Predict the structure.
Amino acid sequence: MLWRLRREIKDANGWSLRELSNFQIARKTSGENCLRAAYGMEPDEDILAYLLKLKLQLAARSARARGEAGSFISDDCVRVEA
């Protein structure tokens, strides 16, 4: 849904992705910026810092998932060398 909303705003205004990002950064309140509301951001949160925090959380979750999957691999499994 977020990607669709982003694309609709971008297309409706004839903006590039950079222009859309600049729009997001320039608007500081969730009432004025529906993307801020879609992410669940507080009005005074820094957009770039918030997005970086989300990316770091996803990276950590992905790393944990890889580690958990590794515990299901036995020592006698077939390994393929790259």
Observations:
- Residues 2-70 form one domain.
- The two ends are 38 Å apart (CA to CA).
- The mean pLDDT is 75.
- The chain has one domain: 2-70.
